[in-house]
């Protein structure tokens, strides 16, 4: 991605780009579910300081993206606890560009409905809370407070492309932190990029200057998965050890 590109300019499949286009049926995975049985090389058994096995399962190994939600609500207190963890995870120069709009009321969710891809409507509308993960392109105005040791505000104020790139990178990271923090609090999480960003910005973010990045649905899943987990790339496929 060049410094001039934004989330809106990245080429995406049609069903992700337009809410009226139905998402195709998911590809049925051919591989068996991941083997999550701890073995001798499983972190936590031999790595000092690693989380215990149950925590690793909850965060990664047995956690799944839920297909359906139970009726259990998510309290405002839980949302505060969630943000209070997310805000502590690292961003470059502590720039903290992520912004989070919690759609917790029925009314706010109804306002979201027209922006959602057809295949995402049911799962978003039935979640306890949908979070709009956004970024503030003017995040650098807070840098004199957040990063007082340097003249960091001026780096970004003078370079719009650098500011855009930094906001997008770090807000996306903060959305990822939100996913894992939610799992750490016992919530289930269903992220979504299949929606009309411009429509969401117009409906919810007008006047704030914030720009939507992706959605994260929160709640307590039913635990019923229609499909086994899809395969992942192996270490040798996805990593270089130099
Ligand atoms: C940024 C992001 C966007 C996603 N967008 C969608 C979406 O629009 N619709 C959807 O059904 N799932 C969406 N997903 C869910 C992923 O497909 C799912 O989390 C992934 O396949 C892993 O599934 P698993 O947790 O069951 O292994 C998205 C996930 C992420 C992280």
Automatic annotation (TrEMBL):
<dbReference type="InterPro" id="IPR029479">
    <property type="entry name" value="Nitroreductase"/>
</dbReference>
<dbReference type="InterPro" id="IPR000415">
    <property type="entry name" value="Nitroreductase-like"/>
</dbReference>
<keyword id="KW-0288">FMN</keyword>
<dbReference type="GO" id="GO:0016491">
    <property type="term" value="F:oxidoreductase activity"/>
</dbReference>
<keyword id="KW-0520">NAD</keyword>
<keyword id="KW-0521">NADP</keyword>
<dbReference type="InterPro" id="IPR050461">
    <property type="entry name" value="Nitroreductase_HadB/RutE"/>
</dbReference>
<protein>
    <recommendedName>
        <fullName>Putative NADH dehydrogenase/NAD(P)H nitroreductase HN018_02545</fullName>
        <ecNumber>1.-.-.-</ecNumber>
    </recommendedName>
</protein>
<keyword id="KW-0285">Flavoprotein</keyword>
<keyword id="KW-0560">Oxidoreductase</keyword>
<dbReference type="InterPro" id="IPR023936">
    <property type="entry name" value="RutE-like"/>
</dbReference>
<comment type="similarity">
    <text>Belongs to the nitroreductase family. HadB/RutE subfamily.</text>
</comment>
<feature type="domain" description="Nitroreductase">
    <location>
        <begin position="70"/>
        <end position="220"/>
    </location>
</feature>
<dbReference type="Pfam" id="PF00881">
    <property type="entry name" value="Nitroreductase"/>
</dbReference>
């Amino acid at each position: 991605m060049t410094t001039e590109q934004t989330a809106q300019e990245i080429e995406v499949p049609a069903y992700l780009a337009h809410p009226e286009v139905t998402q195709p049926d998911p590809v049925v995975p051919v591989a068996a579910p991941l083997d999550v049985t701890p073995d001798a090389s499983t972190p936590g058994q031999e790595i000092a300081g690693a989380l215990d096995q149950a925590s690793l399962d909850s965060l990664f190994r047995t956690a799944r993206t839920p297909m359906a939600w139970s009726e259990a609500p998510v309290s405002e207190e839980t949302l505060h606890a969630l943000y209070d963890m997310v805000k502590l995870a690292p961003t470059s120069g502590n720039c903290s560009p992520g912004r989070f709009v919690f759609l917790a009321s029925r009314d706010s969710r109804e306002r979201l409905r027209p922006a959602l891809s057809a295949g995402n409507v049911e799962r978003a509308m039935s979640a306890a809370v949908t979070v709009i993960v956004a970024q503030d392109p003017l995040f650098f105005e807070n840098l004199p407070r957040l990063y007082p040791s340097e003249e960091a505000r001026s780096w970004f104020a003078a370079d719009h492309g650098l500011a855009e790139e930094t906001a997008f990178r770090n807000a996306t990271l903060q959305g990822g932190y939100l996913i894992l923090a939610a799992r750490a609090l016992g919530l289930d999480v269903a992220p979504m990029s299949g929606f009309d960003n411009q429509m969401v910005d117009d409906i919810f973010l007008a006047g704030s200057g914030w720009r939507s990045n992706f959605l994260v649905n929160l709640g307590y899943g039913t635990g019923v998965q229609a499909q086994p987990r899809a395969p992942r790339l192996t270490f040798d496929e996805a990593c270089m050890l130099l």
